[in-house]
Amino acid sequence: MGIPTGIALMIGATLAAVLMLLAFKTLGLVLGISLVLGTAFYISGRRPSDRQEKLRSSLRHAAGDLSDVLGLYEQFAYSEDAEHLADRTLHRPELLNPDSESPDVSAYHHMRATAERFLRRLDTHLADETLSETELENLLAITDQRSQQLQEAWWRARVAAKEIGPGH
Fold first, then answer.
1. Do 28 and 87 belong together in one domain?
2. What is the domain range of residue 105?
């Protein structure tokens, strides 16, 4: 994942201060201390705002909603519960087929794969301290939209798979 931005800045400022000390002696000491203090002051002022923290929290919640929708398929496909076993074998076996000829079922599988990739990348975005409020708002809107679209695709795929039935 790499070094956090604040630590990297402090390491760079410290190294530059040492080089200035070696090159300019007393003047380098004064310049180096000024550089390190200025960098520390800059870093301390870069704390995320309350609004950004609330957006990050909302984004984590929206990602949880998206994960819950993905979990519906996982439960359908892999649960040993009698209800789910009957559903996938007797009523909707086509829902397990990612290469289904049903446009709704194949569209769902495509959206599911896309949503899984999106969630894997989302953690990287959440860890990025440099994202602005606007960028976080856009990411939240995209996450909410994906969750809603996946939910709708899931229900359409379930209906289509039920219509196809087990004899396909």
1. no
2. 50-164
Decide if pLDDT at 27 tops 90.
Answer: no
Residue 69 and residue 142 share a domain: yes
Dist CA 163 CA 131 (whole Å): 46
> Count of domains in the chain?
2
Contacts of 133 (CB under 8 A, 6+ apart): 49, 51, 52, 55
Q: Are 59 and 122 in contact (CB under 8 A)?
A: yes
pTM above 0.90, yes or no: no
Same domain, 16 and 74: no
Record the tokens describing residue 57, joined without a space: 């929290």
pLDDT tens, position by position, 108-161: 999 999 999 999 999 888 888 888 889 999 999 999 999 999 999 999 999 999
Q: How far is CA 131 from the centre of its chain?
A: 13
Tokens standing for 3? 């070094």
